[in-house]
Amino acid sequence: MQVIHTKTLQDLEFPEVVAQLSVRCVTELGKSAALEITPLTDKAALLNLLGQTSEYLASFANDNRIPNHGFESIARELKLLPIENTVLEISGFRRIAHICTTITLHKKFFKKFKDYYPLLFAATEKIEENTLIPESIADIIDKFGEIRDTASVDLKQIRMSINTVRGKINQSFGAALSRYQSADFLDDIKESIVDNRRVLAVKAMHRRKVKGTVMGNSKTGSIVYIVPETTLQYSTELSNLEFEEKEEIRRILLELTNSIRPEVSLLATYQYFLIHLDITAAKAKYASEMNALLPEINENKKLTLRNAYHPLLYLTNKQKKEKTWPQTIALHPQNRIIVISGPNAGGKSITLKTIGLLQVMLQAGFLIPVHERSSVCFFDKILTDIGDNQSIENHLSTYSYRLKNMNQFLKRCNSNTLFLIDEFGTGSDPELGGALAEAFLEVFYEREAFGVITTHYANLKLLANELPNMTNANMQFDNHSLEPTFQLVMGEAGSSFTFEVAQKNGIPYSLINKAKKKIDRGKVRFDATISKLQQERSKMSKTESRLQDKETKAKEEAERLEKLNARIKSKLENYQELYDHNQRMIHLGNKVNDIAERYFHDKKKRPLISELLRIVETENSKRKKSSVKEAKVKKAVKKQTANELEQKMVKVREEKKARKKKAIREEKEKPRPVFKIGDRVRMHDGKAVGSIDTLEKGKAVVNYGIFTTNVSVDLLELVEAKK
Fold it and tell me: CB–CB of 139/147 below 8 Å?
């Protein structure tokens, strides 16, 4: 793969993408490195990079979140370490220790979850772990950034001596303070601090009576600041010890620096990996914000983008809460070049830029906002000619610049090239420019290059219609409102709607008609035919949409009727069973009634009992004795049915409550009417209508004709205002 030219990246607004990525990095080095990202030339490295970003994106959706990778730069330390006898600062050691522990943490994490993040695990597995560096630093420097007393035996001894001398200083100063205070040689403030030393505040008249070194006096001259003689001796000893402490600390840090010095290349690797991880995390965050993913990568030179969004436009519209229209487009060996036509402001250029920017982003290791069923390939070269490229410095017109650009296209174009040209052939005489553009396009076609162009030229539309591996496409336009729908339609050229748009913008019809007469009638008919085809397609699309809606409604209605039919059938069966059961009971009751009537007349018990037993046995013979298992099943079915019925009742009650609450809420949200005397009203929960006789302090007397009642106006609703 070859490097994509900087001009192409600028045409496709790739610098804006890396700028947005930089903002999402958490480290300063990551932010700087993100701005330097360009498309990769190594295909294997690119696939690995895309896979790592996809794995990091997946971590946002599971519980195994990747640890924090933030770090402070050790670039200064990496420059100093190769220089002999240099000593790192304490803050530098702490930054180095933090980077080492961060690497160790990530190595352990990715090893534990290598099944989830195989590519990231492989990246960390290559890095050698070093726990000795942070351990040796921790032995010397504590968590507050101070050198430990145990850093060396000599340092410990020196600091013990310093503490002893400081104790003597305080003791001697206290003794002098007490002695001279009792002698009334000191001022009211007694002591002060001069040059970080405790001094006695001696009255000027007694300065010669106090032994010591004068450190200064007050502004008025009434006080002289003196260090007592004994204290001064100990202070000198303390200064010597503090110097020894500094020297010992420098020796310790030099020794620590020398122990780390051989690992400078490993530390550089650590920092490089964490920068890479910061950029990968930023790419994953960027992808998450625009619903991007890693589509299928193919080797067959097929570029199929389904529901592809322009990343910058999508994020901008997302902030504004506006809709972004996706595009679906396919390039493959049997359809290598697409010629997009249609009116201005219809979305041709943004479609072109969407294809180019997504391809460049993919080849720079970014995930792209497309449908998961998209399939993409890689191109060695991506050539673009987009926008007004007038060169003031070189005194070139737009057309001259574009011709130079086309010359470069001719030199570099081959079967592994994707070219994107906006407004192909414009800038010169339409007839001549169109003919030259057609010649260029035929060369690109013969070299089996892949590309997308936008144009208004009819000859290019005809060429796309004639060549087998080239296709026309157009940006759909609503022929009634003359507004773009931003939908790309493959298979047919688009009209520029030149005269229709002019008419919509108030240009007189007579002037438009005059313009039509000035051009070739065949062109007018050709453009009108295309316009008519687009109108027919638009009508068919709307008809199809309406038919789909009707079909959906018909299906829903059929399902509803089927369910209703099933319920009615079930009820009829239940009624039939109930009817049969009742008829049997009536027949049985008639028999019992006949026996009872005979017994009433003859009072004979034996025939009565005999007849009753016969009836009972006859009925029992009709009953089928069920097994214990069947009885249990029947009981379970009844119980389940009862439970389902209870759940339905609970659901119905909840729905009723929800509707009631909604009605109450809507009632509260309704603006309260202002009642007047004579308005016809009724109670919220009533049907009778009356008229207001009087209004006073939120109360109203409502006359219902037969009677009157005094109610709050909050309980009333307006039926008819007084005219």
Answer: no
CA 482/CA 472 separation, integer angstroms:
21
Residue 390's pLDDT band (cuts 50, 70, 90): very low
Does position 395 have pLDDT exceeding 50, yes or no? Answer: no
Tokens of 128: 């050698």
- 478 three-state secondary structure: coil
* Residues 227/131, Cβ–Cβ less than 8 Å: no
| Residue 394 scores a pLDDT above 50 | no
128-131 long-range CB contacts below 8 Å, 24 or more apart? Answer: 128/266, 129/103, 129/104, 130/100, 130/263, 130/266, 131/100, 131/104
Measured over the CA atoms of residue 653, residue 659, residue 661 and residue 667, the dihedral's sign is: negative
Residue 311 in contact with residue 357, Cβ under 8 Å? yes
Instruction: Quick: pLDDT tens for 14-53.
Output: 999 999 999 999 999 999 999 999 999 889 999 999 999 9
Q: Are 515 and 499 in contact (CB under 8 A)?
A: yes
Beta bridge partners, 331, equal 303
CA distance 522 to 593: 103
The percent of residues in the chain predicted with pLDDT above 70, rounded, is: 84
Contacts for 672 with CB less than 8 Å, ≥ 6 apart: 714
Q: DSSP secondary structure string, 430-476?
A: HHHHHHHHHHHHHHHHHTT-EEEEE---HHHHHHHHHSTTEEEEEEE
Question: Tokens at residue 565, please?
Answer: 């039919």
Q: Is 236 exposed, middle or buried (0-12, 13-18, 19+ CB in 10 A)?
A: exposed
What's the confidence (pLDDT) of residue 391? 47
Q: What is the mean pLDDT of the chain?
A: 83
Task: Give pLDDT, residue 291.
Answer: 92
Residues with Cβ within 8 Å of 95's Cβ and at least 6 positions away in sequence, in order, are 71, 72, 73, 74, 77
Query: The sheet that has 470-477: what strands, in order across it?
Result: 381-385, 417-421, 450-454, 337-341, 470-477, 484-490
Interhelix angle for 430-446 vs 458-466, to 10°? 30
Give tens-digit pLDDT for 398-421.
Answer: 667 777 778 888 888 888 999 998
Q: Which two tokens stand for residue 134?
A: 């942070």
| Region label for 506, one of left (φ > 0), alpha (ψ between -120 and 50) or beta (otherwise) | left
Query: Which secondary structure element, helix H or strand E, spans residue 703, and what is its range?
Result: strand 699-703
The four Cα atoms 142, 144, 147, 150 give a dihedral, to 10 degrees, of -40
* Per-residue b or e along 552-580, where b marks 16 or more CB atoms closer than 10 Å to that residue's CB: eeeeeeeeeeeeeeeeeeeeeeeeeeeee
Residue of higher predicted confidence among 293 and 577: 293
- How far is the C-alpha of 80 from the C-alpha of 100, rounded, in Å? 18
At a CB cut-off of 8 Å and minimum separation 6, what does 251 contact? 152
Q: With 60 as the cut, is the pLDDT of residue 516 above it?
A: no
Q: How far apart are CA 519 and CA 527, in angstroms?
A: 12
Phi, psi (deg, nearest 5) at residue 407: -65, -40
Nearest of 473, 428, 426, 475 to residue 452 by alpha carbon = 473
**pLDDT higher than 60, residue 366:** yes
Neighbours of 48 (CB within 10 A): 16
CA distance 608 to 499: 107
On the CB side of 282, CA atoms within 13 Å amount to 28
Condensed to tens digits (0 to 9), the pLDDT of residues 153-206 reads: 999 999 999 999 888 888 888 888 888 888 888 887 888 888 778 888 888 888
Instruction: Match 């310093």 to its residue by tokens.
Output: 162
